[in-house]
């Protein structure tokens, strides 16, 4: 090609932005607009409007894109807690796949943030706003992907069912649980893809691994209470309710639950050890040894993520005590949140907390998701390790090699909980797969100034479109 022809080709690409690049750019803009709309609808429990406005807003987008009325449903137990179900019909060659994502977010107070948490703010290469990481960024990607497929007239070999739901974070009307109980036939699928979390991890801007969650911990909240008669503040007594509870909490803080690897976490560390730098590789091999090397464990578990992967964790999250500045406290209460390794029960952990604190004055009871006393133990014992399906893993590995060359694709355990607990309990294999990239030391989900890297979000849009097309096509060899 002559220099003149190259110049003309470059000019043409500049004018049309090249069709493929332009299409990606257009859908990036769409995804950003959907993310803005979702972030600016307050779906926190304290917001008072629930998930319904977000479900209706997304339903309107699908209607506008030409989805059939019978393929769009907004359903739920009450006017505040509606869920959105959308179906993109396929040709029926394969059984459907179910995509899940939650619309609700954790509460956020304006005075705690440097920006308005319910306004999408783009600053210094990041999107700021409640839900950008957990998980309205993922919701926007799911919606954008289905809208793009519809616009491009893509017919998958399996129906794609999208469920955007209520009350994963808080509230008493969990959408996935309700749909599985009340509308089970609408969720009939061969397996489930959950977008609830980052799937690509960075260290100083460099991709170090691509993850798929194949197991996760259980979650239980405990309320710790100490009561006594109290009295006048001028007459201190040794059985102060605040001191007793604080001492018990301090013992919990100093306690390390036993290290335990399951099939998924063992394979995860084996894969990491192959590519880790020398010192870390030695520690990884040490934790894999039988018996594990205690010094290696001590070094590895200084990192909060590694610590959460290998043991049950319990942490105090709330404290309330006393009734007057000049009176001895008659009651002191604290909430301890535990994330429990699969295979262990909340009651087992409650009994261990009682033993750790070793103080008969401290009463330990369960709380439900609303923070109310729960008379019986939660039933979940976590998500047991699942077999890795070829139709989930092979497309992920292929696309990851192209988008993030050299980064290993590794199955791991989610250190938090998700709606996968409900889907797997009904026999639906569930995997967390996402193309959103996050710095390992900048995970701000549930925290102050939650944010997502702008370019990582757009890369996540591109990834999921390619991945879902591959997952919903009959395997071709």
Protein architecture, described:
The protein folds into two domains: 17-216 and 384-471, 3-Layer(aba) Sandwich (Aminopeptidase), CATH 3.40.630; 218-374, 2-Layer Sandwich (Alpha-Beta Plaits), CATH 3.30.70. The model is unreliable at 1-17 (pLDDT under 50). Strands 1-2-6-3-7-18 form a six-stranded mixed sheet, sandwiched between helices. It starts with a helix and ends in a 6-residue tail after the last helix. A hairpin with a 2-residue loop joins strand 4 (121-123) and strand 5 (126-128). The chain has 477 residues and is α/β, with parallel strands linked by helices. The longest helix is centred in the first third of the chain and has 21 residues, at 19-39. The chain is globular, with a radius of gyration of 24 Å. It is built from 14 helices and 20 strands.
Topology:
Elements: H1 3-16, H2 19-39, H3 52-64, E1 72-75, E2 83-88, E3 97-102, E4 121-123, E5 126-128, H4 136-151, E6 160-165, H5 175-182, E7 191-194, E8 200-203, E9 206-216, E10 218-227, E11 231-232, H6 241-253, H7 263-275, H8 278-288, H9 294-300, H10 304-310, E12 313-321, E13 327-328, E14 331-340, H11 346-357, E15 363-367, E16 373-374, H12 390-403, E17 409-414, H13 420-425, E18 430-432, E19 437-439, E20 451-453, H14 454-471
Parallel strand pairs: 3-6, 3-7, 7-18, 8-19, 9-17
Antiparallel strand pairs: 1-2, 2-6, 4-5, 5-20, 8-9, 10-14, 10-15, 11-13, 12-14, 15-16
Low-confidence stretches: 1-17
The profile of the biggest β sheet is: 6 strands, mixed
Question: Any idea how many domains?
Answer: 2
**Helix/sheet category:** alpha/beta
Report, as a whole number of angstroms, the end-to-end distance.
36 Å
């Amino acid at each position: 090609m002559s220099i003149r022809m190259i110049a003309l080709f470059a000019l043409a690409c500049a004018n049309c932005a090249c069709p493929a690049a332009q299409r990606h750019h257009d859908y990036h803009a769409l995804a950003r607009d959907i993310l803005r709309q979702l972030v600016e609808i307050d779906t926190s429990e304290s917001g008072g409007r629930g998930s319904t406005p977000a479900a209706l807003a997304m339903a309107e987008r699908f209607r506008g894109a030409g989805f059939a009325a019978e393929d769009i449903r907004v359903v739920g137990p009450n006017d505040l807690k509606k869920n959105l179900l959308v179906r993109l019909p396929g040709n029926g060659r394969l059984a459907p796949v179910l995509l899940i994502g939650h619309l609700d977010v954790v509460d956020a107070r304006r005075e705690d943030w440097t920006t308005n948490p319910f306004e999408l703010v783009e600053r210094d290469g990041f999107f700021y706003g409640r839900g950008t990481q957990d998980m309205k960024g993922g919701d926007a990607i799911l919606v954008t992907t289905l809208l793009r497929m519809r616009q491009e007239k893509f017919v998958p070999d399996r129906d794609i069912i999208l469920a955007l739901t209520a009350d994963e974070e808080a509230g008493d009307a969990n959408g996935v649980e309700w749909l599985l109980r009340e509308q089970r036939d609408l969720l009939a699928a061969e397996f489930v893809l959950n977008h609830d979390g980052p799937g690509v991890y960075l260290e100083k801007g460099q991709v170090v691994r691509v993850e798929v969650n194949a197991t996760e911990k259980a979650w239980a909240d405990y309320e710790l209470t100490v009561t006594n008669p109290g009295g006048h503040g001028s007459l201190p007594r040794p059985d102060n309710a605040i001191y007793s509870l604080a001492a018990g909490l301090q013992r919990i803080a100093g306690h390390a639950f036993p290290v335990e690897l399951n099939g998924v976490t063992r394979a995860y560390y084996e894969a990491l050890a192959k590519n880790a730098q020398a010192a870390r590789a030695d520690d990884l091999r040490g934790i894999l040894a039988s018996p594990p090397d205690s010094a290696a464990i001590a070094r590895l578990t200084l990192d909060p993520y590694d610590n959460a992967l290998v043991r049950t964790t319990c942490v105090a999250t709330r404290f309330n005590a006393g009734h007057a500045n000049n009176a001895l406290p008659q009651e002191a209460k604290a909430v301890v949140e535990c994330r429990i390794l699969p295979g262990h029960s909340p009651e087992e952990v409650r009994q261990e907390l009682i033993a750790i604190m070793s103080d008969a004055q401290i009463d330990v009871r369960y709380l439900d998701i609303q923070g109310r006393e729960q008379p019986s133990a939660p039933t979940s014992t976590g998500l047991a390790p699942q077999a890795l399906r070829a139709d989930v893993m092979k497309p992920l590995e292929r696309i990851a090699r192209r988008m993030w060359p050299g980064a290993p694709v590794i199955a791991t355990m989610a250190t938090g909980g998700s709606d996968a607990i409900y889907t797997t309990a009904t026999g639906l294999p569930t995997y967390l797969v996402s193309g959103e990239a996050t710095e390992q030391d900048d995970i701000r989900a549930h925290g102050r100034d939650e944010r997502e890297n702008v370019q990582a979000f757009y890369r996540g849009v591109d990834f999921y479109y390619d991945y879902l097309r591959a997952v919903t096509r009959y395997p071709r060899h």
